[in-house]
Write a structure and sequence with these properties.
Blueprint lengths: L1 H25 L3 H21 L2 H34 L2 H22 L8 H28 L5 H45 L1
Amino acid sequence: MQCFRMREKVMKRSQDDDEQEQAESEGPNALQMLREDHRKVEELFEQFEGADNRSRQGIGNQILTELEIHATLEEILIYPAIREAIDEDDMMDEALEEHHVVERMIKELRKLQPKDERYRAKFKVLSEIVKHHVEEEESEILPKAEETDLDVNALGAEAMDRKERLMAKMERVRGTTKTKSATRENRKGSRRKVASR
C-alpha cells in the first residue's frame, strides 16, 4: 500500500513538472504579467511616499517609465485582443480614457523636479488614478478575459518581447536625453568661465 502511495506521489510530481514546463515553453501569461506590473508600480508608489527628495526623483522616474511601458503594451497589444474576446466596448473605452489621463500627467511630471511645489501633489493624484484603474482592470476586465478562449500565453510571449524592446528603446532615449542635458550644462559652464575672465 505504501509503495502504491509513493508511486502515486512521484507520478503526480512528474505531471506537475510537465504542466509547469509546458506553460513555461508556451510563454508567460499576459494577464498575470499585467497583475505583476500592477504590484510593482504599487510598491514603487509606496516607496515614493516615504522617500527624500533625492531618492524621490529616481523612484518617480522609474514609476513613469513603468507606466509608459505598461500602457503602451496594453494599448497596442493586450487591450485589442481582450476587446475582441469579451466584446465590451464601453468598458474598454473607459480603460483607454484612463490611460489618456495618466499619459497627460506623465508628460507634466517629466517636466517637473522634486523641488517643484506641485510635484508630490501630482504624483499623489497619479497614484490615485492608477489605483482606481488597476482595481477596475483586475475586478472587471481581466476576469472577463480569463473566461474566454484568449491565448494568454501566446499574447504573453508577444507582450514580453515588446516590453523588452520598449525598455531598450526608452533606455536609449533617456541616455541620449541625459547626454544632451549634460552637454548643455558643460557648455553653460564653459561660457560662464569665459565671461568671468
